[in-house]
Amino acid sequence: MIEVNGLSKRYGAERAVDNISFQVQTGEVLGFLGPNGAGKTTTMKVITCYLPPSGGSIKVDGLDVQTHSLDVRHKIGYLPENTPLYQEMTTYDYLTFVAAMRGVDPAHRPSRIAAMADVCGLETVLTKRIDALSKGFRQRVGLAQAMIHNPPILILDEPTTGLDPNQIVEIRELIKNIGKEKTVILSTHILSEVQMSCDRVLIIHKGKLVADGTPQDLQESYSSGQRVRFGVQTDPETVQSVLSGWNGIQIAGVERVGEDETLFTLTTDRKDDLRPELFSLAVSEGWTMTELLREQANLEDVFRHLTTE
């Protein structure tokens, strides 16, 4: 659905985006990550035809963004970081206005507004002025305006900025539902959102693409060994003696929990799962095991690894 080849964007001598290439498949929810100033928003603006590229090419559904700009815009719904709303208008009037600007047939505008009100949960605020709405409802209105012309592609730049935890959950569920029918590019700093909402992740740093894969693949690729939390109710010195140097395992931490429980943090460079061996060891030694948890690198660890010096 979207094909980016060798994209570059310069602002004077500064290269904001530096020769990046990627594809987004039909029906895919793509998380687009990077630190502030990495080039995420610039890339999105070039895809939406808001900015011209300095080099490379972008095709949207087979159409070049430079030679078929208007046709490409018809296929994209865009929600920028600062939601573009006319605060003095009611929700219904604003969506009517956007539908007209987007070329929706006048006969179909009421049904499209009703559909967006249902999808985005706006039924109770259609007659209210936008400046009277909460931040969460304004974000919903922003999503509705991006989808009013029923585009096959949605590009969302920080859609949960400024929302409280309850509102973030609501918008996340909304995006997941939208992603069942449309191709979505989602930029956010909330990595848990990407973990739960996205099929695939791109990480950009200083204008260059540094990672591309599913959240699970990235976690496994950039995980250095493994850490296991192993809790037992027995003499800690006995456990420490048995575990020291056992099968390539190192004891990274020992923590007393209560009077009779000790929590060991174990590390190893081995890739195979240690838990079955530790379970068998506890059974054979007669230890009462209280905890056995394998800790893997999460998306935050991967992000920090790739975007810090």
Could you explain how this protein is built, in words?
The chain has 309 residues and is an alpha/beta fold. It has two domains: 2-221, Rossmann fold (3-Layer(aba) Sandwich); 226-302, Alpha-Beta Plaits (2-Layer Sandwich), CATH 3.30.70. The chain has helices at 40-47, 69-74, 91-101, 109-120, 135-147, 165-178, 191-197, 215-221, 236-243, 275-285, 299-307, and strands at residues 2-11, 14-24, 29-33, 55-60, 63-64, 76-79, 153-157, 183-187, 200-205, 208-213, 226-233, 250-257, 261-268, 288-295. The strands form three sheets. Strands 6-7-8-3-9-10 form a six-stranded mixed sheet, with helices on both faces. Strands 2-1-4-5 form a four-stranded antiparallel sheet. It has a four-stranded antiparallel sheet with strand order 12-13-11-14, with helices on one face. Helix 3 crosses helix 4 and helix 4 (109-120) packs across helix 5 (135-147). The mean pLDDT is 88.
Could you state the CATH homologous superfamily of the largest domain? P-loop containing nucleotide triphosphate hydrolases
Structural class, please? alpha/beta
Oligomeric status of the shown chains? single chain
CATH topology of the largest domain: Rossmann fold
What topology, given as strand order, has the largest sheet? 6-7-8-3-9-10
- Low-confidence segments, given as residue ranges, are none
Q: So what's the overall shape? A: elongated
What's the N-to-C terminus distance? Answer: 34 Å
Helix-strand string: EEEHEEHEHHHEHEHEEHEHEEHEH
Helix content: 25-40%
* CATH top-level class of the largest domain: Alpha Beta
**Measured on Cα atoms, how large is the radius of gyration?**
25 Å
Tally the structural domains.
2
Compute the number of helices. 11
Strand content bin:
25-35%
Report the major sheet: 6 strands, mixed
Number-wise, the strands total: 14
Q: Per CATH, which architecture of the largest domain?
A: 3-Layer(aba) Sandwich
Query: pLDDT average, as an integer?
Result: 88
